[in-house]
Every structure is written in structure tokens, then in C-alpha cells.
From TrEMBL:
<protein>
    <submittedName>
        <fullName>S9 family peptidase</fullName>
    </submittedName>
</protein>
<dbReference type="GO" id="GO:0006508">
    <property type="term" value="P:proteolysis"/>
</dbReference>
<dbReference type="Pfam" id="PF00326">
    <property type="entry name" value="Peptidase_S9"/>
</dbReference>
<feature type="region of interest" description="Disordered">
    <location>
        <begin position="1"/>
        <end position="24"/>
    </location>
</feature>
<dbReference type="GO" id="GO:0004252">
    <property type="term" value="F:serine-type endopeptidase activity"/>
</dbReference>
<dbReference type="InterPro" id="IPR023302">
    <property type="entry name" value="Pept_S9A_N"/>
</dbReference>
<feature type="domain" description="Peptidase S9A N-terminal">
    <location>
        <begin position="14"/>
        <end position="420"/>
    </location>
</feature>
<dbReference type="InterPro" id="IPR002470">
    <property type="entry name" value="Peptidase_S9A"/>
</dbReference>
<dbReference type="InterPro" id="IPR001375">
    <property type="entry name" value="Peptidase_S9_cat"/>
</dbReference>
<dbReference type="InterPro" id="IPR002471">
    <property type="entry name" value="Pept_S9_AS"/>
</dbReference>
<dbReference type="InterPro" id="IPR051543">
    <property type="entry name" value="Serine_Peptidase_S9A"/>
</dbReference>
<dbReference type="Pfam" id="PF02897">
    <property type="entry name" value="Peptidase_S9_N"/>
</dbReference>
<keyword id="KW-0720">Serine protease</keyword>
<comment type="similarity">
    <text>Belongs to the peptidase S9A family.</text>
</comment>
<keyword id="KW-0378">Hydrolase</keyword>
<keyword id="KW-0645">Protease</keyword>
<dbReference type="InterPro" id="IPR029058">
    <property type="entry name" value="AB_hydrolase_fold"/>
</dbReference>
Length: 700
């Protein structure tokens, strides 16, 4: 397949200012370390403070990618219109009942941001309680955080971020007037939870390094300096959040890293109470707390339950010594989540690589499974606002079946279809084929690969392919309906997802076998998936475009170094590619909490060497790389902009081939890219245009 040529444009020349660092007797030199702004914390809050030399370089990168992709402008426009045409512009969620009202969200035609509304419980006129488009007016970036209405339905807590740096401001709204109160709190994690009396709320404060360090209580009508400190986490290696229960009895403070968790609770009606410890943190012990009336349901891996079990504990004394087994551990059945109701307990689990929902009657212990027929699909539990109800809500889709929302009566077992995702421009599932393949990896493990293609696409090795991967933090990538990828499928692409190790697609052991010392399994699994697609005649290596973001961007950097010949192009979105330097910098927001996932190279020479052996930036070498597109956000606190900027500079320096390396940086956004739904489509259209260009399909 002949690639459409890129124009002859001089790439930005990145200045080199070598800086050396010696750890564990090993010295490394970083010639591009200067791209890391010394005042990065201030830049996250005010991007105008960026060093002019760095800004000039980033703007030169944007000018370069614009020049190389100029001939795709019309194609990007067509892709955007196609993807937009599959979105119901005035779409609305199915309102969820809570007391006298039902709450939901919607978009207006042409709107970028969601609106939140409520109606009378059994239907009626909508009352818009928060209009995201109105709040976003005049802002280059705007992202809504959490929304929480009070139990008396009189007030609303809502959060927003207008920089992309994920420092959220919380506001409180009087729902009778639609106006915000004076209670405004900056530098929060983005959400709050009301006390039982609706007189104040609990929230998490971020420190200067963007870490959730304090849970505070704010009483309405008082100054923030009077906010009561409920709990302070002094270990920078732990995340923290605060939430409530649907019966409005408890406030729960969750503290966790990637392998250890801890909960502290206090009565929702006693904001003056001291939080009570449930089970002290113990390295490797994970547990999640869920309400259950006189007991808590606890999802945990305690006592060797690698794929998790459910225990109960009395609410008046939930210490670990009082935990009683409720749903035992079953190897190979990974319990993902649990929701407690007055008469039922619902769990979402994954077995044989597929999700399922199990309903348990609390009275007699009987269980039944909500069954589905397709070969591969995605399930989600939406739960309920209410605790004393027989109705649970869930969502379903597959790669060919648009999303569906159901209410399920747990007592009668009646499944009620509330909504099917509309595709205004039309969608016929019969036009597409979806498959689940199993690709043999380097050590004999079988890697699931989900794929979709148009039924008219020839399976003779001639089709281009976009192969997506992630493989970290135990996150499983669902085989769900994606209207955007249909633009590729309609142009003859095979769209595939490699469910590599590092996710929990095949159980908790699948996750463990793709982290820390075994991280390279993730990369080798992805390469194996690409090879298997070729063996099965779905595509050829020079027709495969690999794509991944964040930790999946690390995957892209690793496979570029390990097997550049296996791919015709690579798209790395907000790529975590400077792994060793980032894990050595304990001032960065996510570094200490990430050590359990990647290792701590500051303290451990073994971890240092393990990371150094695969860190994409450190392993760029003099070899021929395929065309690469890196996408970044200036105010990204998760994967800082200088990681892709440095990586791109080193790739260009050492690349022995003639294919270009592009970097596109959004100067007004962070980790998630553009904040509006249509602005985000423009970014996807750009990425797809790159894939089409490098596979010779740009005229399609």
C-alpha cells in the first residue's frame, strides 16, 4: 500500500543542553531536559507563565505538524462531519429517580457541554439546573467536575476546571433561584458530598503538587478558612477521595494507591465526628466499601482472594476481625464491583474474558445472572440514586450494537429497555462483522483481540488496520460500540483492540503479569496481536497503525523501539514515554502514587534497571522508525507536556529512516484534550486522517 508522501518541510531543530544524572552507579545524560519548565506548577495554573523559549519551540512543533498534514484538511472535515452525524446533537440521558424528582443530563443542538436537568419523578417539564455551555462561555477550556444534589433537593454542589490542569473550583447553587451562593472553593479534586442535614459538604483539597492531601468540611455561609479538617493524608504515595452512601448515613474517605487501600468513615449527620478506621492499610490489601443497611459489603482480595471476594461487616464495628464471607473467592472469576440494596446485592464480574451481572437475593441467598448472547460485548452498572428499590440500571453495547440502557427489576427479573443509542446518519449492524481472536504471545499466553470491519472488506491481507492498546493499572478495554471508528471501517479498515497483559481482561493475574518486572509482557502481547492479525490475513505489517494514549502511549513508545518494522504508523496520545525520569522525580503529581505500578527507581536499583530497560525515551536508538504522531496538552498534570516533546526530539535526532515524527500540542488543554464534545471530534478526525495518510487511504 503506497503511503501518501509528506511534504518536504524542515522539522524543528531542538536545542541540546546536556544534563547528567547518576543513580545506583549509573549515569545518564538528557540533552533535552531543558524542555521541562522550572515553574511547571505555576504554568498549570497560568499557562502564560511558560518560559518563552519553550513556548517558541512548542509553537514550532505545531507549525511543523500543520504543514505536514495540510493536505488532509478536507479529509479531516469529512471525518468530522461523519462522526458528528452519528451523534444525536440534542441527546438526553434517561433520568434516574430520587425522591420527588428524576435527574438527568442532556445536550442542546450544537452544544459542546452537557446540561443537567430534573423532572418530576414520574415525568414532566424539565428544569435545567446547570447549563455547561453557559458556564463555559468565554473560556478556551472548560470541563465540568462532579455534580451532587442535596437530599432535600434544594441545592447543588458542582465543580469545574477552566485550565485543563485538573485543579477544580467547587460552587454551590440554590436550585430555587438558579444562582450560585458565595460558597466557592478553589483547588479541589472536583466534587463534594452533602452532610445528612444538607447544611454543608465534604470535599478533597489538592496541595501545590496536585495531590489530594486533605478532606475538609465546609458549612454553608461560612468562610473557607473556617472549614474543618476531617482527615489529612501525609503519605504522598496515596490518592484520596470522599463520598457518601445512598441511604445518607455515612461519609466514606477512601485512601489508596495501586495495590493498597484504606477506608475511614463517619456518620453523615455528624460532621463534627472523628473518622473511624475500617481496616488499616497493609501493603497488597485492597478493599472497597459499599452500604448495606446494618452491614457494609466489602469487596476485597484479603486472605489470598486474588480475583476478589465479598465479605460483610457490621456498621457499628467494621474492623477486619469482624469480616464475614458473603461471596467466596473463585479463581478465574474477577469481581469488579458491588452495589448494595435493601433486599438485593448486585455484582459486576468478569469470567471467561466477558463481563456479567449477578443478582443476589439477601433474604435467601439465591442468585441469577443477567444473560447476553453476543460473542463479545461491554456491560456497565449505573446503579441507582435510591437504596430501598428493586430496580437497578445497567448499560450494554457491543462493537456492532449501539449502546442500550436498561432498568432491571431484581424481583420480577423483568428487563426494561429505556433507550437505544441513536445514530442519526444511520447504522446497520449487518454491514459490519465483529470477531474475538486469540493471539499467541511470546510465552504461549493467548491475547484476546476484539475487532470490527465492514462486511465488504476483503480478508486477504490487503486491508489497513488501526490496532489500539492500553495495558496498565488493571484497566480492561471494553468491546463497546464506538461510532467514531466506523469512519475507518467504512474506508476498509479493520479496527482492533489488543487486550494485553497489564489490564484485567483475563482476571487479576493478567494485570499482575503486565506490571513492574513483567511490564514487557504488555509490549510483547501487543506485537503478538499485530503479528496474529497478519497471520490471519486481516492486514499486513506496513498497513497497521498502532494507537494508544497515556500509559497506552508508553506502549506505543515501547513497540516503536522494539519492533518498528511491525507497524506502518504510530499514534501516541499524551504518551507516558519518559518513564524513568518521571519516576525519579517525586515532586511530580503522580509519581509517588505510581511507584506500586512501575517500581521506585529512587530506592531500588533493580526497579531502576527494569524501567531503564524499557522506558521509551531512554531506548530510542539509531534505527528506522515508522511515521509517528505524538499528541500532548500543555497543562496536563498526568503526563506532562515535556515527555512527548523530549521523546519527539530524540526520535528525530536518532531516526535513521526518512519518515517524519510529528507533535501536536493543545496549548489550551490538559490530559483529556479538548473539553467540548465536538472539539474532541476534531482531534479524533486529525488522528484518523494521519492513519489514513500513512496507509495510503487519505483520498477515501
Amino acid at each position: 500500500m503506497k503511503q501518501k508522501p509528506f511534504p518536504s518541510v524542515m522539522a524543528p531543530l531542538t536545542a541540546e543542553h546536556p544534563s547528567s544524572d547518576t543513580r545506583h552507579g549509573i549515569t545518564r545524560t538528557d540533552e533535552f531536559a531543558w524542555l521541562r519548565a522550572a515553574n511547571w506548577q505555576e504554568v498549570f495554573r497560568d499557562p502564560s507563565l511558560l518560559d518563552p523559549a519553550i513556548r517558541t519551540h512548542l509553537e514550532a512543533e505545531n507549525a511543523y505538524q500543520r504543514a505536514l498534514m495540510a493536505d488532509t484538511e478536507a479529509l479531516r472535515g469529512r471525518l468530522f462531519e461523519e462522526m458528528k452525524g452519528r451523534i444525536k446533537e440534542d441527546d438526553s440521558s434517561v433520568p434516574m429517580k430520587d425522591g420527588p424528582y428524576a435527574y438527568g443530563s442532556s445536550y442542546k443542538k450544537g452544544g459542546e457541554q452537557p446540561r443537567f436537568f430534573r423532572t418530576p419523578r414520574d415525568g414532566g417539564a424539565e428544569d435545567i439546573i446547570l447549563d455547561g455551555d453557559r458556564e463555559a462561555e468565554g473560556k478556551a477550556y472548560f470541563h465540568l467536575g462532579g455534580i451532587d444534589h442535596s437530599s432535600n433537593h434544594r441545592r447543588l454542589i458542582w465543580g469545574y476546571d477552566d485550565k485543563g490542569s485538573e485543579f477544580f473550583t467547587l460552587k454551590t447553587r440554590d436550585l430555587s433561584t438558579g444562582t450560585d451562593l458565595a460558597d466557592t472553593i478553589p483547588d479541589t479534586a472536583g466534587s463534594g458530598v452533602w452532610d445528612a442535614g444538607d447544611t454543608g459538604f465534604f470535599y478533597t483539597r489538592l496541595d501545590q503538587n496536585h495531590r489530594p492531601s486533605k478532606v475538609l468540611y465546609h458549612r454553608l455561609g461560612t468562610g473557607t478558612v473556617e472549614d474543618r479538617l476531617i482527615y489529612e493524608e501525609t503519605d504522598p504515595g496515596f490518592f484520596m477521595n470522599v463520598g457518601g452512601t445512598r441511604d445518607n448515613r455515612w461519609i466514606m474517605i477512601g485512601i489508596n494507591d495501586h495495590e493498597t487501600s484504606e477506608y475511614r468513615i463517619l456518620p453523615a449527620g455528624r460532621p463534627d465526628a472523628e473518622p473511624k478506621l475500617v481496616a488499616a492499610r497493609e501493603t497488597g490489601l485492597q478493599y472497597d466499601l459499599e452500604e448495606g443497611g446494618d452491614v457494609f459489603f466489602i469487596l476485597t482480595n484479603a486472605d489470598g482472594a486474588k480475583d476478589f471476594k465479598i465479605v460483610t461487616a457490621p456498621v457499628d464495628d467494621p474492623r477486619r476481625e469482624n469480616w464475614q464471607e458473603f461471596v467466596p473467592h473463585e479463581p478465574g472469576r474477577l469481581i469488579l464491583s458491588v452495589i448494595g440494596f435493601k433486599d438485593f446485592v448486585v455484582r459486576l464480574e468478569r469470567k471467561d474474558s466477558l463481563p456479567r451481572i449477578v443478582i443476589r437475593d439477601r433474604a435467601d441467598g439465591s442468585e441469577h445472572v443477567i444473560a447476553f448472547a453476543e460473542e463479545a460485548y461491554s456491560l456497565g452498572l449505573a446503579g441507582s440514586y435510591e437504596y430501598d428499590t428493586d430496580i437497578v440500571r445497567f448499560s450494554y453495547s457491543s462493537m456492532t450494537t449501539p449502546g442500550q440502557v436498561f432498568d432491571y427489576d431484581m424481583r420480577t427479573r423483568q428487563r426494561i429497555l429505556l433507550k437505544t443509542q441513536e445514530v442519526p446518519s444511520g447504522h446497520d449492524p449487518e454491514h459490519y462483522v465483529t470477531r474475538r481472536l486469540m493471539a499467541p504471545s511470546h510465552d504461549g499466553e493467548l491475547v484476546p483481540v476484539s475487532l470490527i470491519h465492514h462486511r465488504d472488506t476483503p480478508i486477504d491481507g490487503s486491508a489497513p488496520c488501526l490496532l489500539y492498546g492500553y495495558g496498565a493499572y488493571g484497566i480492561a478495554i471494553p468491546a463497546s460500540f464506538n461510532t467514531n471508528c466506523l469512519s475507518l471501517a467504512d474506508r476498509g479498515f479493520v479496527y482492533a483492540i489488543a487486550h494485553t497483559r497489564g489490564g484485567k481482561d483475563k482476571g487479576f493475574a493478567w494485570y499482575e503479569d503486565g506490571k513492574r518486572a513483567r511490564k514487557t509482557n504488555t509490549f510483547l502481547d501487543f506485537i503478538a496481536a499485530a503479528k496474529h492479525l497478519v497471520v490471519e490475513n486481516y492486514t499486513a505489517h506496513d498497513r497497521i497503525v498502532a494507537q494508544g494514549g497515556s500509559a497506552g502511549g508508553m506502549l506505543m513508545g515501547a513497540i516503536a523501539n522494539m519492533a518498528p518494522e511491525a507497524f506502518g504508523g504510530i499514534i501516541a496520545e499524551v504518551p507516558f514515554v519518559d518513564v524513568l525520569n518521571t519516576m525519579l522525580d517525586d515532586t511530580l503529581p503522580l509519581t509517588p502514587p505510581e511507584w506500586p505500578e512501575w517500581g521506585n527507581p529512587i530506592l531500588s536499583a533493580d526497579d531502576y534497571r527494569t524501567i531503564a530497560d524499557y522506558s521509551p525515551y531512554d531506548n530510542v536508538a539509531a534505527k528506522s522508525y515508522p511515521p509517528i504522531l505524538a499528541v500532548a496538552g500543555l497543562t496536563d498534570p498526568r503526563v506532562t507536556y515535556w515527555e512527548p516533546a523530549k521523546w519527539v526530539a530524540r526520535l528525530r535526532k536518532l531516526n535513521s529512516g526518512d519518515q517524519p515524527v510529528l507533535m501536536r500540542i493543545n496549548m489550551d488543554a490538559g490530559h483529556g484534550g479538548a473539553s467540548g464534545r465536538f472539539s474532541r471530534l476534531e482531534e479524533i478526525a486529525y488522528n484518523y486522517a494521519f492513519a489514513l495518510k500513512v496507509t495510503g487511504k487519505a483520498e477515501a
